Amino acid sequence: MSESSAASAGENTSSVSSAVPAGEHEPSEITYAEHFHPARPKSLRHRARVKSPVARRSVAKDGKPTGTNPAYVSWLLSQSMLADANEISRQFSGQGTMWQNPFANPGPRQAVETASVWFTAYPISFITRPGDSFLGAMADEALWEAFATIGIEAAHTGPVKRAGGLSGWQTTPSVDGHFDRMSTEIDPAFGTEAEFRAMCGMATWSGGTIIDDIVPGHTGKGADFRLAEMKYGDYPGIYHMVEIDPEDWNILPDVAPGQDSVNIDAATEEQLAKAGYIIGRLQRVIFYSEGVKETNWSATKPVEGVDGVERRWVYLHYFKDGQPSINWLDPSFAGMRLVIGDALHSLADLGSGALRLDANGFLGVEKSAEGMPAWSEGHPLSAAANHLIGSMVRKLGGFTFQELNLTIDDIRTTAEAGADLSYDFVNRPAYHHALATADTEFLRLTLRTSLELGVDPASLVHALQNHDELTYELVHWATGHRDDLYTYKGAEITGGDLAESVRRDLCEHLTGANAPYNLVFTTNGIACTTATVIAATLGITNLSTIGDADTARIMRVHLLLAMFNALQPGVFALSGWDLCGMLTLPPDDVSELLEQGDTRWISRAAHDLMGVNPGATRSSAGMPRGTSLYGPIPAQLDDETSFLRQLQAILAVRKRYGVAVAQQIDIPAVSHRGMLVLVHRLEADRLHLTVLNFADEHVSGTVRSEHLVPGSAISDMFTSKPVGTVDDLNSFVVELEPHQGHSFLVELPTA
Known about the structure:
Elements: H1 70-79, H2 81-90, H3 108-114, E1 117-120, H4 134-138, H5 141-150, E2 154-156, E3 161-163, E4 165-167, E5 170-172, E6 181-186, H6 193-205, E7 209-214, H7 223-229, E8 241-244, E9 261-263, H8 266-274, E10 297-300, E11 303-304, E12 310-316, H9 334-350, E13 354-358, H10 380-395, E14 399-403, H11 408-415, E15 421-423, H12 428-437, H13 441-452, E16 460-463, E17 470-471, H14 475-480, E18 485-488, E19 491-494, H15 495-510, E20 519-521, E21 525-527, H16 530-537, H17 548-566, E22 571-575, H18 576-580, H19 591-594, H20 633-637, H21 643-656, E23 663-666, E24 675-683, E25 686-693, E26 699-704, E27 713-716, E28 722-725, E29 731-736, E30 741-747
Parallel strand pairs: 1-2, 1-22, 2-7, 7-13, 13-14, 14-15, 15-16, 16-22
Antiparallel strand pairs: 3-6, 4-5, 8-12, 9-10, 10-12, 11-12, 17-21, 18-19, 20-21, 23-24, 24-25, 25-30, 26-29, 27-28, 27-30
């Protein structure tokens, strides 16, 4: 998963990601001494490197792939994440290094101070030099020099470990963009463990850090799931899976030839719940698709166990059927051991400094009262599990962030003891709505609601485009507070109706006949890039007609959105699609990938970040090259008028004045509907104001806040020039060109 709406969203990479037969492993590794600097967290740098289990994987493939074949079972164990976790974890027990860091409480500001500007990569869309791997390219010194010049301090790699499943002796492709993890090994399609460590070493040398992924909510259908189906040891305890008595197999649907499971329908779900097998209906069905995924449960075909007994199981999967959900409260604690071991491997063996927790909001399910859906969101077990993961990572000197598209209340609760940072799913669709409608009212509502409910903007990752859709589920309003009343457009409206109104606005302005290059993605959002969102708002109906004048307009708005995200407390994140100004792909270019209805593939165009392979038409993983409006990084850095040179100036102001760790204290009313004002406290006698114009027209507006003291001096943070003083009405007048932004320093009078 990933950003996903409630998590990242399902991805079918069958024709994109290459695979190597399971059991093969990489070339011999290099040691930390062969790098410029050790790459592990500081608390572990004086230890000998943790032994990776990769070296022991060599088991012959002999006989039928069944549970009664000891060779097959041994081979599965050699691929198992749980087996690796057990081996890795033992190396930490009894070690003093486990007690050198505070771990109980999240430290969002400490995490932001470690790295406040992130590059978010998407490996399969990364064009490299011929013969180079993704990880090899990410270890390039020139890339990190460019990052340092721009102001980027960390790189989030995205998932690069083996993913997908096993069918007998054969591997099967990922069904979710490598978020259906099945191994602790690096996928050879992306490089080697040695290259991963070299990347971490280069990041450390450059003063940066690497952010890796763990997926505590589910795995793929790899060795661990196959061993669970065979009822081997405590492997069934990894998952929410229930053995169905053969007398009740008649309840279960048949599995189609060539498939290993089938989704059950709502009637079967209810029947199994009444029979006491499963907890039944959950609060929602993510990625609902008639005939494909009608419930969150699937039934396996008959599987021969290690004891020779054939069994059929019903298992939970919040996302696709190839992503069985992990059970965090099984007596074996096998699922917990698997996840924690994976985190230890990424931090202490590979050298990451931080981890993304993907799909971590769904770690607890519980049967509810008769007739009610099972409790599956905002469950206390999720908070407890996240506390354990976050604490373990902090013990090792790292930090975590979560992609949790739930209510603001849930984000606040999980942040109290879990991840250090949370992805900003609250304001992300709202700032797109402000741009699409030239009206910031809903954005001001989301910002104020977050503050009122105790979510500190400094604890959020404010992002431009990533690999997912423009998410517009608006879970806080559509689900958690659907019956609450809000004031919007001069009238009272329920949260559910408000969410529906915003979704309707976004679809109307950003898709359809006037913007056919953006596509709706199920009920989750819109497949688009930042540049094509902007193109739609500017009235561009055909991407092929974009010329220099249009590019300049798109760039101007792109910088406005960057200012919104960067000139407030917290992390600012952007992708290669943003850095290069990428457009969506024509659907015909990715028609195979769109067959299952996942329209997001149009927004994942391959891009050549460093301009190292201008002749490439595809990435090494097979993604088609897209159109770049801004060009590669080196060319932009040679042009003082480029997108990146102007972004560099924004990030320099952010760093110089400590905006990333400031305190947001006011989202005041505005005198023009296209205006937005953010008020931040830097120090006792200094304020920072971000003033933006989301409208495509000139605005002469008044900035007013009770925190502005009459007589305070106001200066422009970009030029350091004075621009006036605060008047007796706690206000001042500002002139804004279309889609222009300002960053003001206000120095309060001293007594």
